[in-house]
Amino acid sequence: MLREAVTRVQTAQRELAGLTSEQKNRVLQQISLQLQDSRDRIAEAQQKDISQAEREGLSPPLLKRLVLNDEKIDTLCRGTEDLQRLADPVGRVISARELDKGLELYQITCPIGVIGMVFESRPDALVQIASLCLKSGNAVVLKGGREALQTNRVLTDCIKEASRTCGITDQWLCLLETRDEVTGMLELDDLIDLIIPRGSNSFVQYIMDHTRIPVLGHADGICHVYVDEDADIIKAISVTLDAKTQYPAVCNACETLLVHRNIVEKIFEPLAESLREAGVEIRGDETTRQHIACKPAEAEDWSTEYLDLILSVKVVDSMDEAISHIHTYGSGHTECIVTENREQAEAFLHRVDSAGVFWNCSTRFADGYRYGLGAEVGISTQKIHARGPVGLEGMVTYKWKLYGTGQVSADYSGAGAKPFTHKDLKQS
Amino acid sequence: MLREAVTRVQTAQRELAGLTSEQKNRVLQQISLQLQDSRDRIAEAQQKDISQAEREGLSPPLLKRLVLNDEKIDTLCRGTEDLQRLADPVGRVISARELDKGLELYQITCPIGVIGMVFESRPDALVQIASLCLKSGNAVVLKGGREALQTNRVLTDCIKEASRTCGITDQWLCLLETRDEVTGMLELDDLIDLIIPRGSNSFVQYIMDHTRIPVLGHADGICHVYVDEDADIIKAISVTLDAKTQYPAVCNACETLLVHRNIVEKIFEPLAESLREAGVEIRGDETTRQHIACKPAEAEDWSTEYLDLILSVKVVDSMDEAISHIHTYGSGHTECIVTENREQAEAFLHRVDSAGVFWNCSTRFADGYRYGLGAEVGISTQKIHARGPVGLEGMVTYKWKLYGTGQVSADYSGAGAKPFTHKDLKQS
Known about the structure:
- The structure is a homodimer.
- By secondary structure, the first copy, chain A, is of the alpha/beta class.
- Chain A folds into two domains: about 1-210, Aldehyde Dehydrogenase, Chain A, domain 1 (3-Layer(aba) Sandwich), CATH 3.40.605.10; about 225-370, Aldehyde Dehydrogenase, Chain A, domain 2 (3-Layer(aba) Sandwich), CATH 3.40.309.
- Chain A is built from 15 helices and 17 strands.
- Chain A has helices at about 1-15, 20-35, 40-55, 60-65, 70-85, 125-135, 150-165, 180-185, 200-210, 235-245, 265-275, 285-290, 320-330, 340-350, 370; strands at about 95-100, 105-110, 115-120, 140-145, 175, 195-200, 225, 255-260, 280-285, 295, 310-315, 335-340, 355-360, 380, 390, 395-405, 425.
- In chain A, α5 runs parallel beside α6 (about 125-135).
- The first copy, chain A, is globular and about 75 Å long.
- Chain A starts with a helix and ends with a strand.
- β13 (about 355-360) of chain A pairs parallel with β16 of chain B, so a sheet runs across the interface.
């Protein structure tokens, strides 16, 4: 039954792939209108979800994430309006080349196909994800948090209704409601082209471990700040503080601080004071503990994503040691060097193998909105397809269109073969 | 032990990533010299491999693939020289953006890391693959065919020797020799970033089924030619013949011909005659058999990659039916429409979801060299990362370099947030 449902989604995607930018934007506009018209229905569903969650004793932070009030609906509507203004990622000419006279090759972006999206709790994510998929011509199979089921149903209805109003299929999105369906979805590698999970590390890791479908995302986000011997003390402290404390619960927050031995004397005291003032618990290696009073960092601290006001601190003898530490314990997310030495900075940025490599600024800038990508699907620590913050461009692939006039390969092979011209064509 | 070996490869890759284009080209040049100097050693190893293979009764086509004679060594040397002339895929600026004054973001290509390459028989593939990896800054763990073991050892030695001569690490390539090592390699998803298998369908499928590492490649290549009702008969026949017979054993050869009902009367007789003259066995659906004498096509024919002079033929009522057949039975490799109707052609190219969509030319053009990509790693039918023929550009990923002057995210958040400028920078 799931297979049949997802097959319908795949068929609908092929209709979606044929829509013009104007048609897709019109549906986005209609989704916004539909949400505004459905405030009462959403409120009703919210009440059911929230009282159920309270009965089940959901923790206050999770309860808070569950809320979709008028203000959040307004934000969602603004989001779909912003999305309309972004360039259509589909149909972009990546390359254009004449192979021979009358034989022209175009590499053109197109939707990936069917996206499987599994996310936890926050129901507004459903609308954001579905909108991004629509804009990029992808169909989507969604599974949201169990706690938000009633709300997710209403939101799905709104989007389907908006699609019908605009005269397009409403089968391009499909809401799954059970865990078994998610397990089933992970097996449909002939129907689903990409899985994007959003949620806790263990949740994402579980998805990655249980499917042959490509997965876009990240499990851990263990980001490092390395304070070089040539660092400006003020910058080092403010970058470290911001990277650790501005929003500790997110993947681009800093978890480990690496400090060059030659700057320890100057920086440790004011740094430790600032961190303590901000309520940060320090866990230091042996050398660190010789300079400041703090808990010891155990072996597992270096590979722990605290997502909390805790910072592990290690003193290193050289940038080489810092880079080696990052490659050993990091997750390839985002790392920063603080230094006034441009050559040293360039070497760090070149050598560190992470999605984001920063010089003299907070790791917290690793974010699709801040990068100016418009909307963000998530942050990938993988090296294949898309890396770092992934915007609409990560939701398309490309195809090769070859326009001929009867050419056959035999004429370009063997003795007396016609040569190819391989001339770049002007891209319109 | 395998883990230790591949860890050394990963370490060596980090050295490789720091090489300049000139350094990499110098090693390529040295590989070419080293091969020429090693003709005797290669011939000796060849003799051992070939007599062993003959004793084991290897089939003549496989024996032929095993041969690495002087002529093939010359071709290999020319290949590494051509590769030197190609642009370095590493260090290319994909995008450059000012986020704010003094905060600049660059999206820059970089190597993927460690590539796992598993290929069958042909020992020249070892040199081609290693050269492509070197040029793109990737290290490589290789497993070639068992039959070519002695030759592969000598070739590996040559490349390592050339690396040492140029003063770089020789640990960036590692030859595996047993099946168990391949099984072990497929589990090293923390060390190996991408697997590229080259070989039979079942072999590639096996690899895809047994690893969590991303795989780039294709299993089946079931390509279609669709002859539209508005087709030019001469073009239709020559494209079909070329696509089927120019080299039937390869993935971009045509396996199924779809013919619009309205053109059957005109095309079937001359087409069938040409195919028969070329020694092609036709397997037709019921309608086809009403027009020409041929074997019946069974259900499994539509999803069979013959790799031989066999062509399944089906009559369709419309382009819709043709596209639907392609989506049902195709492998997403390459499909061609033959028609004089441009609108119809554009619709086909837009709607068919395959890596290559061609108009009035043979499917055999789906090839990295013919596309002008320079060298080709393989052809991918996946939609993630790279699709269709994959050249050097498919062997790199990118990182985001952010150059700041002490910026922290708190200044761009909440009430009184500084706005981002998000201004595109001129790319040098």
